[in-house]
């Protein structure tokens, strides 16, 4: 295994984020975020706000029809599509063609926040990835279920996977303790086997690419271990990808910004008790501390 590189401000200054020419939102990219279920709807909202805070220019949201009306009001910056849902409140597999038509033209698609791990979800994720293989993808939470067995991660762009230890264990069919005992090795193996950039989240987060390159970040603090924090991280990755960052750049920047936002909130609010929704609000200020490309 290659030595891992620490993610810090010096590293990121050598890899600045793309900066849009002019003021058009078209120059900052279009991101589509697909997620939510009847009883777990907040995750997709957190991810959407984070993508905008990361600088994406245009935002679409696709969620279950029972929650779409609320989100259209709660997030006026987004174009919201409601999708048919199953009796359990998950997205129905029959939405595939409609979903593809709605997100066509997106620069980046994030799928998974708040989605239930069902057979309908697995079928929907696989169909969308096949239909949109030239689009940059971020797979998070519910969309990670079954990816290892599908072997469809072969599009134009390296996809980004954002599991925590429990989701990685589920992905591989192993126990969580095994993942937590050797996170770097597991991230490297999955990145190579799935031809993806893997962000394995934890107290120490590891990022691996298919070539065996590895990065790590240790900051942030215990307060980031709060409900919705991972949804915010996934949204930041998607927003940076939409702006034109590479999958590795978007992953490293997102992990750093997310972690430093947590460290900042620990100072202003307290080491415990700040909310995931507050993390995204710190992102623009942190990005502004870096020189533009």
UniProtKB/TrEMBL annotation:
Binding site for (6S)-NADPHX: 43, 114, 164, 231
Keywords assigned by UniProt, alphabetized: ATP-binding, Lyase, NAD, NADP, Nucleotide-binding
Cofactor: Mg(2+)
GO molecular function, one term: ADP-dependent NAD(P)H-hydrate dehydratase activity
EC number(s) on file: 4.2.1.136
The family this protein is said to belong to: Belongs to the NnrD/CARKD family.
Name under which the protein is recorded: ADP-dependent (S)-NAD(P)H-hydrate dehydratase
């Amino acid at each position: 295994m290659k030595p891992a590189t620490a993610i810090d401000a010096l590293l990121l200054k050598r890899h600045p984020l793309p900066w849009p020419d002019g003021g058009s939102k078209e120059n900052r990219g279009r991101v589509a975020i697909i997620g939510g279920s009847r009883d777990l709807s907040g995750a997709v909202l957190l991810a959407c706000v984070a993508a905008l805070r990361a600088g994406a220019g245009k935002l679409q949201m696709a969620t279950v029809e029972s929650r779409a009306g609320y989100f259209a009001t709660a997030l006026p910056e987004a174009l919201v599509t409601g999708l048919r849902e199953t009796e359990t409140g998950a997205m129905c597999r029959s939405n595939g063609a409609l979903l593809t038509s709605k997100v066509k033209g997106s620069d980046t698609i994030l799928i998974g926040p708040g989605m239930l791990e069902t057979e309908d979800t697995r079928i929907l994720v696989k169909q969308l990835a096949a239909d949109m293989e030239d689009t940059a993808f971020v797979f998070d939470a519910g969309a990670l279920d079954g990816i290892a067995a599908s072997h469809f991660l072969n599009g134009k762009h390296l996809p980004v996977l954002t599991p925590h230890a429990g989701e990685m264990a589920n992905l591989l069919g192993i126990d969580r303790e095994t993942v937590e005992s050797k996170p770097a090795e597991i991230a490297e193996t999955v990145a190579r086997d799935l031809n993806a950039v893997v962000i394995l989240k934890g107290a120490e987060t590891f990022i691996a690419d298919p070539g065996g390159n590895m990065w790590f970040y240790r900051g942030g603090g215990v307060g980031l271990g709060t409900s919705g924090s991972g949804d915010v991280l996934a949204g930041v990755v998607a927003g940076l990808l939409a702006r034109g960052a590479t999958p590795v750049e978007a992953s490293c920047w997102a992990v750093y910004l997310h972690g430093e936002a947590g460290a900042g909130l620990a100072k202003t609010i307290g080491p415990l008790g700040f909310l995931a929704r507050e993390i995204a609000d710190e992102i623009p200020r942190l990005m502004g501390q870096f020189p533009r490309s």
